[in-house]
Amino acid sequence: MAEAHQAVGFQFTVRPDGVDLKLSQEVIKNIYLSGVTAWKKKAIQFKNGILTGVYPASPSSWLIVVIAMMSSLYTYIDPSLGMIEAIKENLPYKDCMSVQTRAVLSAILFATGLWLFFIYLMRYTLKALLSYHGWIFESHGKMSRATKLWLSLVKMFSGRRPLLYSFQAALPRLPVPRVDDTVQKYLESVRPLLDSEQYNQMEILANGFKETEAAQLQRYLILKSWWSTNYVSDWWEEYIYLRSRSPIMVNSNFYIMDLLYVTPTHRQAARAGNVVHAMLQYRRKLERGEHVPLRALGIVPMCSTQMERMFNTTRIPGIETDIVQHLTDRKHLIVYHKGRFFKVWLYTGGRHLLPSELETQFQRILNDKSEPQPGELKLAALTAGDRVPWARARIKYFSHGLNKVSLDAIESAAFFLTLDEEPQGYDPAKDNSLDIYAKSLLHGKCYDRWFDKSFTLISYPNGKMGVNIEHSWADAPIVGHMWEYVLATDCFHLGYTEEGHCKGDVNRGLPCPTQLQWQISAECQDVIETSYLLARQLADDVDFHGYLFSEFGKGLIKKCRTSPDAFIQLALQLAQFRDQGVFCLTYESSMTRMFRDGRTETVRSCTSEAVAFVRAMEDPRSTNAHRLALFQRAAEKHQNMYRLAMTGCGIDRHLFCLYIVSKYLGVESPFLKKVLSEPWKLSTSQTPQQQLNLVDINKFPKYVGAGGGFGPVADDGYGVSYIIVGENLITFHISSKFSSPDTDSGRFGQHIWKAMIDIQALFKLENNKRMVENGKCVHLEHLKKLM
Question: Which of 452, 455, 460, 444 is CA-nearest to residue 479?
Fold first, then answer.
């Protein structure tokens, strides 16, 4: 076979007159180019590392300072106030240097020290400026003079052309809130959910906590905040994600969908080729730190730490806890198709495979008619079931021989790609097309995604794509950033031929993908089947409903002078009450990435103000004006809570960390135990859109994403993800469990739709009333003139 010959770098034959050595020029050329590429990559990383390390200054500024100091030697002006002379007198080996050399070297050393001092001064000044969050609490469209001055200073100290990690050292640390503040906010958050007796009991527990163990736990937490870059994130990753022993499929992993209305090509291999190539371009910029950092208002930087582990990352199962394994410079991809695993090299001749070359490789896999090896078909179900059996199976069956080699190939791959067999995507002609699409992305067949990989890219026969993401290493906005880049690059930069193939010449000389080899015993196959049956039961229990709300969107909501997020959250509270007849503890995810290593905080959306509004909506005696006033009060309350969460003044992460400290110290806290055991029956999240602004959706309205979603957090609750798409569309992804007699995702979707319409009607009625009143005034003025 041609690929076998290309894989041999040299051949030799031993003869009586010596050794006949034959070199393969093609392979030697590839080795040479790979080496050149590797050194070039290291040089770029080294250069960008220096640029990031000295930011907000630049290497050229060092040269300016050195020249200025050198010039002072000839002007007989000493700006160092004698320090250059002191350095000159204390130089080692000064007897071996001339006076001129010592003077120049002393000036350079002083200039370098002065330059480093100014770097740290600017960096800590920027950190102090970024610790101010007053701007976020100001009304939309209104900006105080203090904030304008603050923004100018931030812009001045932020430097020019920052790289991805340039601001990391200047980001402030997440502050530890006061215990009294956190407890007070907590009691306020549960007041609408408890009757008087229950609330009094909770108040007693809270006061007992403040008077006894709180001070000791808080001291340890403050000490941790001084020592670590973020007092929450490492414990959050370990105890919320990695120590969980239940399946991560459905319970933890989440998904992101493809473009809603557009499919650039209906050729599966071609679409996968373009998307994988775009991902490799994104990864190259990520490894070099060349992405532009995200900044609120275009000025305030966000933490980029989570992006580091996007590629080359796998969650490794353990008996007590999992670990996240992150490698560097992985050059292959694992592809799953019809029960078989293939290894595809992503480089040739020191460069990425071109989209047309990737299409060729994927088409070869699609055309391969071989059967799966014994036990191979459902092997990935091990990653979908309970963690402990998977950890034990990994040690027992996959720690040696062929199985170890193949498993290492999967776990060390850049990412995982599934070439699926059934078409998916949004189809307006089918009522449940989004439901089926979402379930396919969330769990598939339970054995055709490697749920432990940082993400699994899923390609469908009709050209649609999607991503299933493991949650421990990052949150949804991080993957959303990459996915926006990939889709924009795929559609607007790479493109396709008229026949739907990837652009570029077809290279059929590439080595064929290599099928991974397994020796899976009957005993191991029983373990795989047990894991599969558990995962199948979990997947079949997911009741999913997705729909597009197109009656109105962000544009109309903003005209009502209301935050779109607050509007939707209050609609969810109204829908929840209509669906269940009671209010419940509600989780909304907020980000804390304005702080170093920040991840998320919880916004408790079910407030007393929200409850008052919902009760007014359900009270036929309540007037429209009264309802609207209560809505605006509830919306303002929600916005303020969201802002507090973003600025490090939330409730739940502080209480969580206090609980972890109590466990380390062996301190029993009835209050913390009660708080951490409360179920979130309504868990919500907004999927970010247009983080990069690579596509003008006003110009290309069809090139919008459908967002993503997740499984239900509580067995008898709902999970709701929503994305605000442009000005006139909102998509909802609703999940629950069939096994719960109290929930129905389709029914809840109808309640959300009705709640959105009813709230919007409040503003419509109020506007009509104002128009009538204005009309009467105009009519009266006209009559007065006639008289």
Answer: 455
Show the tokens assigned to 459. 């390609």
> Which tokens is 689 given?
């859109």
Closest residue by Cα to residue 545 from 309, 293, 748: 748
On the 0-12 / 13-18 / 19+ scale of CB atoms within 10 A, 747 is: middle
Whole-angstrom distance, CA of residue 278 vs CA of residue 27: 26
Strand partners, 729: 725
SS3 content of the chain, % helix, strand, coil (to 5): 50, 15, 35
Catalytic residues, by residue number, are 471
Q: What is the DSSP secondary structure assignment for residue 259, as one 8-state letter?
A: B
Predicted pLDDT at 57: 82
Q: Please state the φ and ψ torsions of residue 688, each to the nearest 5 degrees.
A: -70, 150
pTM for the complete prediction?
0.89
pLDDT of res. 392: 97
Give me the amino acid identity at 6. Q
Compute the distance between CA of residue 375 and CA of residue 391 in angstroms, rounded to an integer.
17
CA distance 317 to 322: 5
691 secondary structure, DSSP code: S
Q: Please name the residues in contact with 473: beta carbons below 8 A apart, sequence gap of 6 or more.
A: 237, 306, 309, 310, 313, 315, 324, 326, 454
For 725, the token pair is 């798409």
What ranges in 54-173 are assigned the alpha helix state H? Answer: 59-75, 83-89, 99-130, 145-157
pLDDT digits (tens, 9 = 90+) for 440-464: 999 999 999 999 999 999 999 999 9
Q: Are 529 and 239 in contact (CB under 8 A)?
A: no
Residue whose tokens read 């932020």: 158
> In terms of C-beta distances under 8 Å and separation of at least 24 residues, what long-range contacts does 69-74 make, across chains too?
69/107, 69/108, 69/110, 69/111, 69/114, 70/104, 70/107, 70/108, 70/111, 72/107, 73/103, 73/104, 73/107
Residue 780: count of CB within 10 angstroms of its CB: 10
Residue 371, CA distances (Å) to 339, 341, 368, 680 in order: 8, 11, 9, 45
Pick out the chain residues at pLDDT < 50. 1-8, 10, 771-772, 776-787
Q: Which residue's entry shows tokens 């290291």?
A: 42
How far is residue 455's CA from residue 497's CA, in Å, rounded to a whole number? 29
- What is each CA distance from 600 to 17, 189, 310, in whole angstroms? 73, 18, 18
Per residue in 238-253, pLDDT (tens digit) is 999 999 999 999 999 9
pLDDT in tens, 334-391: 999 999 999 999 998 888 999 999 999 999 999 999 999 999 999 999 999 999 999 9
Residues 217, 218, 219, 221, CA torsion sign: positive
pLDDT at 456: 98
Structure tokens at 261: 């209305």
Rama region for 64: left / alpha / beta (φ>0; ψ in -120 to 50; rest): alpha
Contact 709, 442 (CB under 8 A): yes
Within 564-651, residue ranges assigned H as helices are 564-580, 608-618, 624-646
d(CA 649, CA 227): 20
Q: What does the DSSP 8-state code read for residue 320? A: S
| Amino acid occupying residue 571 | A
CA distance 566 to 605: 9
Segments in 54-82 forming alpha helices (H)? 59-75
CA distances from 480 to 294, 437, 485 (A): 12, 18, 9
Residue with tokens 């006949």: 20
Contact status, residue 463 vs residue 266, Cβ threshold 8 Å = yes
List, as own/partner pairs, every contact residues 732-735 make where C-beta atoms lie below 8 angstroms and the sequence separation is at least 24, other chains included.
732/546, 732/547, 732/549, 733/434, 733/438, 733/544, 733/546, 733/707, 733/708, 733/709, 734/544, 734/545, 734/546, 734/709, 735/438, 735/442, 735/542, 735/543, 735/544, 735/545, 735/709, 735/710, 735/711
Q: Which residues touch 758 (CB under 8 Å, ≥6 apart)?
A: 574, 617
Take residue 578 and report the two structure tokens written for it. Answer: 């209509």
Euclidean distance between CA atoms 364 and 387, whole angstroms: 34
